[in-house]
Specification:
This is WD repeat-containing protein 75 second beta-propeller domain-containing protein. By secondary structure, the protein is mainly beta. It is built from seven helices and 50 strands. The strands form 13 sheets. Strands 1-2-3-4 form a four-stranded antiparallel beta sheet. The chain has a four-stranded antiparallel beta sheet with strand order 5-6-7-8, with no helix packed on it.
């Protein structure tokens, strides 16, 4: 069953927001994520595999009917790939120049959206050539939700039945999604006006009938029948999963408040679990429409990212816009959302054209005690509404609580916000710049002795320069200088007295970014201009040190080193240059890191400094660079050693997930390796906490490697025996020491009382 669509080659297929789900045996959840396919464990919610190989957006994932341990994926790169998803191995690449995979055999959509059937090659080569390709139907809808396969796929004459785009009551009949009943000849279609139609008797020309179901107030985004066909699931922008009885459509069940608009629904093969993906990059695991059992939340994707990328000094989490009116705190290390902080504190209404408050600016102080946010709303034929809010970290709730709200802090839009970043400063100062031609310094005032409400913020200074508009500002690393860019003029101020110290000349062009140098380069101030210039001033001589012509879209400094990063936009792509202001050559450069402009990036400090890095990656020793692409994909640079550690960690997750929870497994202690280092460091080993012997790497490799990729048994036997031998170069125990060690071990095994875990295992 196919829903019609217009010819639009790029209608949403490259946004990166689409997530397509598939479940296998209730243990694994597969979803398309950017250019890869992620495999999650439904029990632990951990990502255990990242199937990488496609060079463009992955648009579909499908289990291979003849082997449920293998899966097909397809991509805008024009290939279909076959994977062993339990081991993360690429088996075959099939070039098809297509976009998508359907439920029975791979089907692709060309740039003209023509449905094409591909006969899969049976060769054993990894790169297989397609020899048979046949067109099925033209003018197919561009969305993967617009095609579904029923219980019997044949090649009968094509039957077309249509609806008028608008009906007499004002409803919009445009098709949005489609699903086929697994047992009966019935097709369910969703429509733009929120109605669902069940079509029957469509095999007979001009004799088809349909019944209408209606609950959704807006477009139906996804439909899915349960495996037995007893229920139909639907979802849309209301964030409510609706379960319809197939034979009793008047009976419905609802699961509300799922947090985001539902974009896709799928069901496990046994019907025990429902899965919904949402517009905010979230997957919800539901137990038969009764309750939410788990949530896999990625980086929350809203309509746009208005704030800068920031790192919370306390939690080391990445902070940026999240849900509407919120800031999200995202753990980069765990790749998980920590929490959303409600800034606007108003209910968000899903209605097109309704102007609501948005969080547009945010900044942390050096210690992470204070958070400043700016929210704005522009109503029709009304003045801009602005609120500046100051939040203080509460140790009791381990979150930020509102301390001060300043209504209308400026008379026009706020263009920049920054804290004085000196950690040893006696006072906390916040500076905001605005299109009203002023910058304001807000200072934290101690409470009066008679008041017990705590500290509050007030305006300490208002600055301006010849009526020019300030667009950017920055504090030096020690907090002794403030630089404010007034259109084409850079001014330097003293925060101690708010005296104008100097003005810096530069070639024509509005200053867009300002960054002070760090450590040995602290005497430099760098800025970018609208005239495509990167300028460096020497603060000791107040003169221009050097400049170069580059279309810099973003400039930022590493807080832990002298390094700076410049993202340069040219020929539709962004190049990255990492450099020190004092050296003429860049430390690192990378052409075309992503398509489009990069306007948001941040250096995230590492918990531990990297050791023994290659020369080309030494700039990553102290901090890791993260940036957002124009498609709002979060990207970063990692070293080869980090990539190997991530791979090993995911292999261990696969092992842990596949081991049954038996008494013997509990006896060995699942979490022993994780806590062993902590116990050793804290109190040392005791006779009662003697670790169990660790198995060799050869045994692990032998037991956990798929049998079809292992070498011959004769080769493995010699390798296995070698792993059991004691090296003659190592320190050998004497026979008496071995006897003594064996005797002590036997003594402990006989006379030590059984541990609690051992007693439970025996029971």
């Amino acid at each position: 069953a196919v829903a019609p669509g217009r010819i639009q080659p790029d209608s949403g297929m490259t946004s990166g927001h689409r997530v397509f789900l598939f479940l296998c045996c209730c243990r694994f959840l597969l979803c398309a994520s950017g250019q890869c396919v992620k495999v999650f464990s439904t029990s632990t919610e951990e990502c255990i595999h990242d199937l990488q190989g496609h060079t463009d957006l992955v648009t579909g994932v499908l289990l291979r009917p003849s082997n449920h341990l293998q899966v097909y994926s397809c991509s805008l790169d024009g290939t279909v790939r076959l994977w062993d998803f339990t081991d993360g191995i690429l088996i075959k690449v099939i070039p098809t120049f297509g976009h998508w995979v359907c439920d029975t055999h791979p089907v692709c959509l060309t740039q003209l959206f023509q449905l094409v059937a591909v006969q899969l090659p049976q060769s054993g080569d990894q790169l297989a050539e397609v020899r048979e390709l046949s067109a099925v139907l033209d003018s197919v809808g561009s969305s993967p939700a617009a095609t579904a396969f029923g219980r019997q796929v044949r090649s009968p004459p094509v039957h077309l039945f249509s609806l008028k785009e608008d009906n007499k009551t004002g409803g919009k009949n445009t098709f949005t999604c489609i699903s086929c009943h697994p047992k009966d000849d019935c097709i369910a279609t969703g429509h733009e006006d929120g109605k669902i139609r069940l079509w029957r008797n469509f095999n007979h020309k001009k004799e088809y009938t349909y019944t209408t179901l209606h609950w959704h107030h807006d477009a139906v985004s996804s439909l899915c029948f349960t495996p037995e066909g007893t229920n139909l699931l639907s979802g849309g922008v209301e964030s409510v999963l609706v379960q319809w009885r197939y034979n009793q459509p008047s009976q419905r069940d609802f699961l509300p408040r799922l947090g985001g608009a539902i974009t896709h629904i799928t069901v496990s093969p046994d019907g025990a679990l429902f899965f919904t993906s949402h517009s905010d990059n979230k997957i919800t695991i539901i137990q038969s429409c009764v309750k939410v059992s788990a949530v896999i939340q990625g980086l929350v994707k809203g309509e746009s990212v208005r704030t800068e990328l920031m790192v919370d000094p306390r939690s080391k989490a990445l902070v940026l816009n999240g849900k509407p009116g919120h800031l999200q705190f995202y753990s980069l290390w765990r790749d998980k959302l920590l929490y959303n902080l409600d800034i606007v504190q108003q209910e968000f209404i899903h209605e097109a054209g309704l102007q609501q408050f948005e969080v547009v600016k945010a900044a942390f102080d050096a210690s992470g005690t204070w958070l400043a946010t700016v929210e704005e709303r522009q109503l029709k034929d009304a003045e801009l509404e602005l609120n500046l809010k100051l939040w203080i970290f509460d140790n009791g709730t381990q979150s930020f609580v509102l301390n001060t709200t300043i209504s209308a802090p400026h008379e026009a839009q706020i263009t920049a916000l920054c804290f004085q970043q000196a950690a040893d400063s006696q006072t906390t100062v916040l500076v905001s710049t605005s299109r009203d031609g002023h910058f304001k310094a807000w200072q934290l005032a101690a409470p009066a002795p008679a008041h017990t409400e705590g500290p509050s913020w007030s305006c300490d200074f208002v600055g301006a320069y010849h009526g020019l508009v300030p667009y950017c500002c920055a504090f030096s690393a020690d907090g002794s200088l403030l630089a404010v860019g007034f259109q084409e003029v850079v001014t330097v101020w003293s925060p101690a007295s708010w005296e104008l110290l100097a003005t810096l000349s530069q070639p024509p062009g509005t200053v867009r970014d300002l960054c002070f140098g760090r450590l040995s380069c602290s005497k430099y101030l760098l800025g970018t201009t609208a005239g495509n210039l990167l300028c460096c001033w020497n603060l000791l001589t107040c003169s221009l040190e050097w400049s170069t012509s580059m279309e810099i879209s973003l400039l930022l400094a590493d807080p832990l080193s002298e390094n700076m990063a410049a993202f340069c936009f040219q020929s539709g792509c962004t190049d990255l240059f990492v450099f020190k202001p004092s050296e003429p050559r860049p430390l690192f450069s990378h052409k075309a890191v992503c398509s489009g402009k990069v306007t948001r990036a941040v250096f995230a400090p590492r918990e531990e400094m990297l050791e023994s890095c290659e020369e080309s990656s030494q700039w990553l020793n102290r901090s890791q660079l993260y940036f957002l692409s124009q498609q709002t994909d979060l990207m970063t640079f990692i070293t080869k050693a980090e990539e190997d550690r991530m791979t090993d960690r995911r292999k261990q997750l696969v092992i842990d997930d596949s081991v049954a929870m038996t008494p013997f497994y509990l006896l060995l202690g699942k979490h022993l390796p994780q806590h062993q280092d902590r116990r050793d460091a804290a109190s040392g080993l005791t006779p009662e906490s003697t670790p169990l012997p660790q198995s060799s790497a050869a045994i692990k490799e032998l037991l956990h490697t798929p049998a079809h990729v292992l070498p011959s048994t004769s080769f493995l036997c010699s390798m296995f025996v070698q792993s059991l031998l004691v090296s003659v170069t190592g320190e050998l125990k004497t026979r008496e020491q071995i006897k003594s060690s064996s005797s002590n071990t036997f003594h402990r095994a006989i006379f030590n009382p059984p541990t609690e875990t051992f007693q439970k295992a025996l029971k």
